[in-house]
Amino acid sequence: MIARGRAEYELATQSVGWLGKSPDNVSSVLTGMMTHIEVFEDYSQERPDALRNYFTYVSEKNLYLTYALVNPQGDRSKAPGEHTKNIYHTLGVVEKNAKGIVVRGAKMLATGAPLADEILIGVHNPLKPGIDERYAVSFAMPLNAKGIKIISRRSYELGVNPKDYRLSYRFDENDSIIYFDDVLVPWERVFIFEDIEMCRRQFKEAAAEVLMDTQSQARYAVKLHFLAGLAQAMAETNGVCEYPTVRESLAKLACYAMNIEGLFNSLIHNPRVDNGFYIPDRTQLYACQVIAQEIYPKVLETIRKLAGGGVLMLPSSEADLENDEILLIIEKTQYSSVASPVERVRLMKLVWDAVGSEFASRHLQYEVFYTGASYFALERLYTKYDWKSSKELVEKIKAL
Ligand SMILES: Cc1cc2nc3c(=O)[nH]c(=O)nc-3n(C[C@H](O)[C@H](O)[C@H](O)COP(=O)(O)OP(=O)(O)OC[C@H]3O[C@@H](n4cnc5c(N)ncnc54)[C@H](O)[C@@H]3O)c2cc1C
């Protein structure tokens, strides 16, 4: 558990925490299903074999997976089966035959889909028994399979100068909605078929979610350390590091980074024995998710407040630095006591890419939503928290 966690942390340092769906993320979902294969055996005879074989296949081929668990937004007050004008708005089963199942409809929001080898489909949203069984499926398919359409948002990497947008250029993950246009999924790739309760158990009872999101906390800790370092470099460049209020702001950023790092360490060093495996404590993970979602907007706000207009009083492109006439003016206008004008320009552009660019804005949305909307994480924490022990403390004082 600890070695695994340290490996995830080291991998995250390669992208300084900016790749949410690095290849060790969704593969952890499969590992977490395998540690609890009994959950699948409990449900069916054939489906666990499909999962076992798929796990071996992905491991041996070293494939990069993404996943899409969320039903596309439509009318959230209605279950998928109540979208009567289009019952295949959400991906559902059209028919089953000897070869497999034919599925139609959409799932969101597969990060990295244009880059990945395969996609895992599951169910995150609640389904209504009696009307939603057709949506209760889980399977995996190659992303170039016949009938799979990837509709990706605009790429933030496309057309930008790598030196102007160092993060966007390297780490954009191209979130996508995936449409299944009557895709035949062979039985050997079907893990759950029309079973609502099993879709819930797949992520909650097995260790799928907990292993995946432990990886996410490793990545997040690295990203927060990066952002703290970036903010301090910017403050030094602007000569404001010695102001007490600036030091307080920087200390808060360090505090957020250490907070998440501490929570991550507690996940890997204080696990539970679960089905014969060391697995991070789920309640602790849910607390982590809630705090992680709350912190990120504060981190960005803190850095923006430190940045002032410095992240915008910049030449439009790296190309300007190659124009002698413009470079002369840049040298006259981009002063710092600790950095050259060109260094200053490049640093401020990096800050903007991290906190203000379209890429940065997408990351804000990612950190706040990738594990589900905040009410979801809070509800899970409410359900799992040890209220009994907590209330015993209250009883102790009441008895005095
Ligand atoms: C950048 C990014 C990348 C993502 N990558 C992936 C990925 O790779 N794979 C994947 O499967 N998913 C991914 N997600 C999807 C993510 O899991 C969902 O965005 C998340 O589960 C929230 O669902 P939603 O977007 O449909 O929002 P909704 O569920 O529609 O919620 C939006 C808001 O509506 C309100 N609301 C909706 N329903 C309720 C309710 N029942 N009670 C109270 N309030 C409610 C809340 O204010 C909520 O914050 C990604 C999301 C983002 C933003």
Would you write up a description of this structure?
It is globular and about 75 Å long. It has 14 helices and 10 strands. The chain has 2 domains: 37-205, Butyryl-CoA Dehydrogenase, subunit A, domain 2 (Beta Barrel), CATH 2.40.110; 207-399, Butyryl-CoA Dehydrogenase, subunit A, domain 3. It has helices spanning 2-14, 23-34, 37-41, 47-61, 166-171, 196-204, 208-237, 244-269, 282-307, 324-333, 341-355, 358-369, 374-384, 387-398, and strands at residues 65-68, 92-96, 100-110, 118-121, 138-142, 148-152, 176-186, 190-192, 272-274, 277-279. The chain is of the alpha+beta class and 400 residues long. The longest helix is centred in the middle third of the chain and has 30 residues, at 208-237. The strands form 3 sheets. A 4-stranded mixed sheet has the order 1-4-5-8. A 4-stranded antiparallel sheet has the order 2-3-7-6, with no helix packed on it. Strands 9-10 form a two-stranded antiparallel sheet. The two termini are 43 Å apart. Residues 21, 66-70, 73, 76, 108-111, 124, 175, 362, 365-366, 369-370, 372-373, 375 line the site of flavin-adenine dinucleotide.
Set out the fold topology.
Elements: H1 2-14, H2 23-34, H3 37-41, H4 47-61, E1 65-68, E2 92-96, E3 100-110, E4 118-121, E5 138-142, E6 148-152, H5 166-171, E7 176-186, E8 190-192, H6 196-204, H7 208-237, H8 244-269, E9 272-274, E10 277-279, H9 282-307, H10 324-333, H11 341-355, H12 358-369, H13 374-384, H14 387-398
Helix pairs in contact: 1-7, 2-4, 2-7, 7-8, 7-9, 7-11, 8-9, 9-12, 9-13, 11-12
Bound molecules: flavin-adenine dinucleotide.
GO molecular function, one term: oxidoreductase activity, acting on the CH-CH group of donors
EC number: 5.3.3.3
InterPro entries: Acyl-CoA_Oxase/DH_mid-dom_sf, AcylCo_DH-like_C, AcylCoA_DH/oxidase_NM_dom_sf, HpaB/PvcC/4-BUDH, HpaB/PvcC/4-BUDH_C, HpaB/PvcC/4-BUDH_N
